[in-house]
Amino acid sequence: MDEDRVENGEGEGKKESKGEERSVEEIFESQEVPSWRNQLTVRAFVVSFVLSIMFSFIVMKLNLTTGIIPSLNVSAGLLGFFFVKTWTKMLQKSALLKQPFTRQENTVIQTCVVASSGIAFSGGFGSYLFGMSERIAKQSEDNGDGFKNPSLGWIIGFLFVVSFLGLFSVLPLRKIMVIDFKLTYPSGTATAHLINSFHTPQGAKLAKKQVKALGKFFSFSFLWGFFQWFFTAGDDCGFVNFPTFGIKAYKNKFYFDFSATYVGVGMICPYIINISVLLGGILSWGLMWPLIEERKGDWYPAGLPASNMHGLQGYKVFIAIAMILGDGLYNFFKVFSRTLTGLFHQVRGNQALPVANQPVNPDVSKRLSYDDQRRTQIFLEDQIPMWFSVAGYVTIAVISTIVLPHLFQDLKWYHILVIYIFAPVLAFCNAYGCGLTDWSLASTYGKLAIFTIGAWVGSQGGVLAGLAACGVMMNIVSTASDLMQDFKTGYLTLASPRSMFISQVIGTTMGCIISPCVFWLFYKAFDDFGMPDSQYPAPFAVVYRNMAILGVQGFSALPKNCLSLCYGFFAAAILINFSKDMMGKKWGSFVPLPMAMAIPFYIGPYFAIDMCVGSLILFIWEKLNKTKADAFAPAVASGLICGDGIWTLPSSILALAGVKPPICMKFLSRATNAKVDTFLGS
After folding, report:
1. DSSP codes of every residue in 131-162
2. What is the pLDDT of residue 143?
3. 434 contact partners, CB below 8 Å, separation of at least 6
4. Which of 28, 165, 176, 556 has the most CB within a 10 Å radius?
5. Can you tell me the distance from the alpha carbon of 555 to that of 324, in angstroms, rounded to the nearest whole number?
């Protein structure tokens, strides 16, 4: 069955028989496609702004706790549909409605929201950007290589000069990627089918029920977060520190922390990811760290504090880095080879690479289905000139090359120039690979920039320069793949490429302001922000900082025997991935993912237990009623994530206002209780 059709068979032209199912575009045939200007409505951007704030809080919270961020496209599309549909119904009743709500407008909202909240990830607030701070430098025993503490002004300026380059770098390739190469872009395709289904009569009824389910679990999650707050008056207090499996297991990070967010994340993430995270937690905190801790005094000095990188903490961080790099490099070369192979077959089949914006051959269009003809026609109507893309890229690159050395003195103009020369090629590779596999390797490209630029600059300033270069590269390749996903969504919903590009630009602009403000609220509200055992430890900031140190100082930064373990886990990550690919899709789906396994190595497996509870709920639900689970599980999971995520806003405001919770609920061992009783008795 063709992915762009809903009926069986090849189907040429329209279906005349009542017995045959109509294609998607035949269902919408009677609806006029609005012009690209009419797709960009004021109400769409008002709703996008509100949802962008909500989703930025959610992504920021996930980024600052574990770094696992599920796709929120479905939630954005669903909530966008609900808000504007409610708006238009109210206007319709009062006879003030001038323009009906269309699927193209729905696509604009989804694009804008995802672009805006995406900056909360690519902005590096939980990784490279916060990794520059003095707080993380002290944790990494790296005071000598300098630091740059967060400030709202320079963060916003930095994001504005690096976040738009990726949009212009792949803009001329939209026809090649979407029409000529027919790349799948699974997330973009799934979002388009969802939006198309919302705007059919049957889909609208289901969407109402889905929104109702989302609202119920949103309310439950928000109120649960509010209830938990009352019991967090001191350190290690509250339900988030509940020793579910006993005090000993709790000390090794094995406990259920009653997080609605990660139960929801577990319902959205594939089963194998949740199992992989749990396996990684058992391997590290259940076996390796207790065994290495017994070597205290031999492998590392016994008197070191827990956060010292030359002690147990160093093993946790650097072994996790080794697994992340092994997994990232394997997938980089895998996707890169698939990109080159795909390009070779495309060029060989067409004898020449197709030119962007070139009209479709009439002979080819005759062989296309009705849906494909309609979509191709609309997609090619509103062209964006090549000169606009080139001029936009060159202009922003020049401004960025001038501004960035003033923000980061160790990052020179020629470093930035080299990045911008290679960036369009890497952005294309990431966008093409994402179209094939649905994997954006933005963080992998960022890590390559850390090592390349950090080693180039050297010991004097190489750490900060490497982290800044990581930010430049991540933003370029991340926004490039996001834009191409949105073009695919727009192609399948008949949204104009111009409206897609403009909504992406407006969403990115919103994100460059909203995300730093949300981060600043977290940073100022919580005094222990970024500390290992705090509510928001930002664990990947330490990881990225130590990658930069490794790139500058080499292996001298590692504790005793750590290098051998790193070699072993680096090789294991590659071997696991290779075995997974060799086994094929059926059996390979049971092989764990090294990247997911590496996440709890540093931060602990407590969130993995929450995610596995989410998986268990979904598994039982699917066994009882698979149809209902498929329809409502994403909405329920989104409600759990959104409610708990939004609670962080009032909790941050309460913390800034100095309002303290009234109760501390804490669990102590029998031995500790005895000591307390003795002390009180004396």
Report:
1. HTSHHHHHHTT-GGG------HHHHHHHHHHH
2. 61
3. 185, 440, 481, 484, 485
4. 165
5. 17
What gap in Å lies between CA 170 and CA 389, rounded to an integer? 8
Structure tokens at 663: 């109760």
Cα dihedral: 226, 227, 229, 230 (round 10): 130
Quote the CA–CA distance of 401 and 393 in Å, as a whole number.
Answer: 12
CB 635 within 8 A of CB 213: yes
**Residue 470 confidence (pLDDT) above 90:** yes
Strand partners, 232: 664
pLDDT in the model for residue 10 = 34
Entry pTM: 0.78
Distance CA 418, CA 404 (A): 14
* Cα–Cα distance, 5 to 372 (Å, whole number): 9
Question: Would you tell me the crossing angle of helices 539-553 and 312-350 to the nearest 10 degrees?
Answer: 80
244-301: per-residue pLDDT in tens? 888 888 888 888 888 888 888 888 778 888 898 899 999 999 999 999 888 888 888 8
**Helices first, then strands: H and E counts in the chain:** 31, 0
Residue whose pair of structure tokens reads 């080499």 in the numeric block = 554
Which pair of structure tokens corresponds to residue 45? 């951007």
pLDDT digits (tens, 9 = 90+) for 319-374: 888 887 888 788 778 767 776 776 676 666 654 444 445 555 554 445 668 888 88
- The token pair that represents 298 in the structure block: 């031999």
pLDDT of 33 above 80: yes
Q: Can you tell me whether residue 592 is helix, strand or coil?
A: coil
Rounded to whole angstroms, the maximal C-alpha distance in the chain is 95
DSSP notation for 621-633: HHHH-HHHHHHHH
Write the DSSP symbol of residue 176. Answer: I
